[in-house]
Design brief:
With about 230 residues, the chain is an alpha/beta fold. The protein contains eight helices and eleven strands. Strands 5-3-1-6-7-11-10 form a seven-stranded mixed beta sheet, with helices on both faces. The protein has a two-stranded parallel sheet with strand order 2-4. Helix 1 (about 35-45) packs parallel to helix 8. The relative contact order is 0.17.
């Protein structure tokens, strides 16, 4: 732990609790690599992390690719598994305890992040206290309904990245998700910056950090680390 991180409040990682893709009956949840890859960056920097989910307890996991060395390292760690099995309910956390909030993706986020009052209140309080808000892939679904104390959308006028409409069509879920994420962020006044499908894209606008897809997860972690240790 460095002098830049020794007094830093934890980063709150928020995971979806939603496990079904719409009416398809197909399983979903949080995408493991979008948790482990940013976590690895923060762990290496000595930045503490805590976990919450919309419903609390053990959230559903998707993208369980154990050929990914970072995934395998954490999935085989009893400490990580214990933390994931025992997430706090987001509505129970105190925003004052955290330096930043990070919304991991996975298709489940499209259903419960935008409709959660706690997403709105906790993220707004952290942001307005000078903290960082970060999200990757479908994690920016959390951002579509977050409003500031002024009533303005958090993303209004902000530069962002998120899972693109083209990527949603490529995975053939554009008719399954409740809305198209990139289009909806743009409708909220955000300036969405797409890269090519599956190319890493990270956008930092002040204390807002967003990434386009799983390939962007490490970069979002790095940008979050750099803001917190600046």
């Amino acid at each position: 732990m460095t002098s830049a991180t020794q007094d830093l409040k934890p980063v709150l990682f928020v995971l979806t609790s939603h496990s079904v893709k719409g009416e398809t009956g197909e399983y979903t949840g949080f995408y493991l690599g979008e948790v482990t890859h940013p976590l690895a960056v923060l762990d290496a920097a000595g930045i503490p992390v805590e976990f919450a989910s919309i419903a609390g307890g053990e959230p559903p996991v998707d993208g369980l690719d154990l050929n990914d060395a970072v995934n395998a390292r954490y999935w085989n760690s009893e400490g990580f598994r214990h933390a994931i099995r025992n997430t706090s309910r987001l509505s129970d956390v105190d925003p004052k305890d955290y330096s930043a909030i990070f919304f991991a993706g996975g298709h489940g986020a499209m259903w419960d992040f935008p409709t959660s009052p706690a997403v709105n209140s906790v993220a707004r309080d952290i942001y307005e206290a000078g903290g960082v808000v970060a999200a990757v892939c479908h994690g920016p679904a959390a951002l579509v309904n977050i409003t500031l104390s002024s009533g303005a959308h958090l993303v209004a006028g902000k530069n962002v990245a998120a899972f693109t409409d083209d990527e949603e069509r490529a995975v053939k879920l554009d008719k399954t998700v409740p809305f198209l994420l990139a289009s909806t962020l743009s409708a909220r006044g955000a300036h969405h910056h797409p890269a090519a499908d599956w190319a890493a894209k990270i956008v930092v606008d002040g204390r807002l950090v967003t990434g386009q897809n799983p390939q962007s997860a490490t970069g979002v972690g790095e940008a979050l680390r750099d803001l917190l240790t600046a």
